[in-house]
Write a structure and sequence with these properties.
about 350 residues; alpha+beta; six-stranded mixed beta sheet; 6 strands; about 10% strand; elongated
Length: about 350
């Protein structure tokens, strides 16, 4: 052993290179430098610390200091510096490769997990490496913002630091997917995803976060992830203002659109006559949307549309005349409101269905 816990094999040939190079004052040859780099790579792969390895080289330099005639301290130190630098270069190269391989393995695992690929038994084994026990329930939160995020970006790192600082090692996995932040946490720890939502909202400068329901097993992670994505999509379609959405609160919307053709028929039947209005259906559809979103309070709905109450009331009367349904009548209101929701989900009348 030369130096602390460093096997002699990682210093093989060093004393000879030092003696020969320092005796003539020559620089190390390419072969000598390559041999140092190879040993550095091997030392990194063996898990040895670089500080201990450098200390071992310095100890070997002192122990085998060339004392031949004409040998100068400068030539000895130059040869030692070149050899140690090449050794460290090989060590760092091996570490960078290991990091890239680990990143690739992690990304492959995340893709397999969120898309439900791979053998479930193998997936569960791989998950334990990242602190997840897939036999338990997990829930997934997804945050979107004005930018596209990768794992190495400042925003994911900021959110991850906050989560680790608050919850330590509570079996949390934070990653990115398709430019969004994704947090996977045990299903019985609502506080984790609530805190993630708060931090992600702040870090993304007012982005939106959706939280899926807890589900058991690897397939449950996929289901919760898809629920969160669908919640984000619904929020965009329905122009919801809430910064944090819970999939459990939005279950009525997938139910309404499960029979797409039936919903399309309802929209056309209830709202189709609005196309005959001057300016088309969209202004009157916006009127109904504002009316229902404001709790059927005309003054508030008029304010949201920057209209006078009189102008807004005229629009409601126009809708009643065209469709035969009175938005203020509880009997008609349910049909109209359901049709308005369907129109927003189907992007009617902009897109054909």
């Amino acid at each position: 052993m030369a130096g602390q816990d460093v096997p002699e094999e990682y210093l093989e040939g060093y004393a000879g290179i030092l003696a020969d190079a320092s005796a003539t004052g020559r620089r190390l040859t390419r072969e000598e430098l390559d041999s140092r780099r190879v040993l550095g790579e091997q030392a990194a792969e063996a898990g040895l610390g670089l500080r201990a390895l450098v200390a071992a080289h310095l100890a070997a330099t002192r122990a085998t200091w060339p004392a031949g005639p004409g040998t100068s301290p400068d030539s000895v130190l130059t040869a030692a510096a070149l050899a140690i630098d090449a050794f460290a270069e090989g060590y760092e190269r091996a570490q960078r490769l290991a990091v890239r391989q680990e990143e690739a393995a992690r990304r492959e695992f995340i893709d397999d997990l969120l898309y439900g690929r791979s053998d479930l038994g193998l997936l569960a084994q791989r998950a334990e490496r990242y602190g997840l026990r897939l036999s338990y329930e997990h829930a997934v939160a997804v945050a979107s913002g004005p930018a596209v995020y990768d794992e190495g970006d400042a925003v994911p790192r900021e959110v991850e630091r906050a989560l680790i600082g608050r919850f330590s090692d509570r079996s949390i996995l934070l990653t990115t997917k398709d430019g969004r932040l994704v947090c996977i946490a045990p299903g019985d720890q609502d506080d984790v995803l609530t805190y993630f939502a708060k931090q992600a909202f702040a870090a993304t400068d007012g982005g939106r976060v959706a939280i899926g329901r807890p589900h058991p097993g690897p397939a449950g992670v996929v289901q919760s992830y898809e629920e969160a994505l669908n919640a984000l999509d619904l929020a965009d379609r329905l122009e919801l203002d809430e910064p944090v959405l819970h999939a459990a609160d939005l279950l009525v919307y997938p139910v309404l659109t499960r029979d797409r053709q039936a919903m399309a028929d309802l929209v056309e039947s209830a709202l189709g006559p609005l196309r005959r209005a001057r300016g088309g259906a969209e202004p009157l559809l916006d009127t109904l949307t504002a009316y229902f979103d404001s709790g059927c309070v005309s003054a508030e709905a008029a304010r949201r549309l920057s209209l006078s109450v009189r102008a807004f009331t005229y629009r409601l009367e126009r809708i009643h005349k065209l469709t035969g349904a009175d938005p203020s009548d509880p009997v008609h209101r349910y049909t109209l409101q359901t049709a308005v929701i369907g129109a927003r989900l189907l992007d009617w009348p902009t897109k054909p269905y």
